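Exercise: predict the fold of this chain.
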Amino acid sequence: GQATRRIPLLGPRAHGARWATLVTPLLPGLPAGLPPTCRPGKFLPLLLSETSRGPPSPNNAGSLCITAVSDSVALHRPVMLAEVLQWLDPRPGQVIVDGTVGGGGHARAIAPRLVPGGWLIGLDLDPSALDRAQAALAGLPVRLAQANFCDLPEVLSALEVPQVDGVLLDLGMSSDQLADPARGFSFSSGAPLDLRFDPTTGEPAWRLLNRLSEQHLADLIFHYGEERYSRRIARAVVQRRRREPVRTAAELAELVSSVVPPERGPGAIHPATRTFQALRIAVNDELKSLEIALRRIPQCVRPGGRVAIISFHSLEDRRVKEAFRTDSRYRPLLRKPLRPSEEERADNPRCRSAKLRVAERTGG
């Protein structure tokens, strides 16, 4: 096997040393000097591996660089793809980051536009998503890493990339995650209520749900889910767990539905939608990651480069709008966010709340 160097990600969210997994499949058209390919195998979670040609040093323990290979087929459809391509404007020779690569939908359309001479860096916390992305992006100039997008400076440093020409973040849930019954993202799932993007780190949602006080749980659901019935829901959870804990997604969805009146009319959502959103945001620390990323991304983008962010609820969009407006390193390119077309909303109802904001990196 090939020797590798393990590189810690000591980012702002780190509690001690952190690691990410760099996936480097054999892909044509990559610039010279990039790490050579790793052999097929499986993930080593939370390991950022940069392949080296020489033997490991005493301070650099050698290991095999292992990549994920799968025949998985992504179900997720990229949101606002035409608008992303128009405003991100990928061109030959550029380096673009897809910070939420998921199943590779946006990346698959962007990467071919970067050749010759350019390539795409895809990040995701979800190892299953990277597995699907690698299968979907085979043959394209792409490098994949298991990492949080707020740790982009550390990933670029490991790849010896000073700055990139563009960054895309799609902050929504993927259909692939919803379709995975083992993850607990679906209301009908009988699996444990997990909701973590990276199932190897952090606390699963069912444990959080069963340890918080009624007051703390109500506050969490209200602030992260913007749920008007948060106190009613928290009370029902506490009463239920006196008998037995809430462990599965289906149990929580049924419990919430029993105390929250259903919505009516166009655009109505499941009664448990906001509660699931709140728990997912909490266990993945999503809003803090976004805030950190918005502060750190400009240092990673060349002047004139673009940052495109798709948000799906007001908590995200508010933070993106504020950063683009107040940080002098961003110059907003749109007066108002773009929304999916009527045709796309009809074809993919899950995209109906999407908002795309785009900014250009200034020279300051």
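Check your answer against the key: Confidence is low (pLDDT under 50) at residues 1-75.
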